[in-house]
Amino acid sequence: MTTLATSTRTSARATIGADARDVGLLLLIGAAAGALAGAVVGGVGGRLVMLVLRLASEPFVNGMTSDDGFEIGRVTFGGTIQLMGGMAALGAANGALYVVLRGSIPPRLRLLLWSLFGAAVGGMAFVHADGVDFTVLEPLWFAVLSFVALPGLGALGVAVLVERWLGNPHGQPHPAALAIAAALGTVALALVAALGLAVLAARRLGLAGRLGAVGRVVVPPALVLATIAAAWVAFEQASQILG
Prior knowledge:
This protein is an all-alpha fold. It has one domain (12-242). The protein has helices at residues 12-56, 77-101, 110-126, 140-167, 175-183, 189-204, 208-242. The longest helix has 45 residues, at 12-56. It is globular, with a radius of gyration of 20 Å.
């Protein structure tokens, strides 16, 4: 299954249906893989990192509000679900974007490039020199490293699951199971649907071949440049934090 591949069916009506099913399953796989990776790596992993930071920090941090709006030192079921849901949404968006772009990335570079891209963009988004998380929690180096590593590991998880499921159609989870997993992505499903419609439109308009050719030239260097730019921003913030 490829992202922009066109159907070989002769009937226009059948082709539309085949394309819609193909694109729908593809985006469903991406969203499900991303939501699972986000919930586990970002949600559970994030909780564990915050626990380590709380235990290693001075007692006065307990009761303070973190940059994400959580009370440090207090773990609640509702707060955990909220964190996992937010991370699942980010992961679902990541997974949907990955399945759309993966055909333009050389297979041997997919896992490495996507995980580095995730780490750099995540570091740029999460690591900042102001606020609470990177000023009062200790050790600072662990906080910085963790909030760069977690997005990278989440992106790696997305790529691993997607490649496994697309590489072995007989080993794919049932579509109902994929739908349940993807539903964890909540608000990100709007982006997933928009990407699906864009891909389907490209197929129906006969632009798949041209976009695929352009993508193979543009996407890999664009991801590299975006990774470098995001990593530079994260490095500047980390330098301020660590002095």
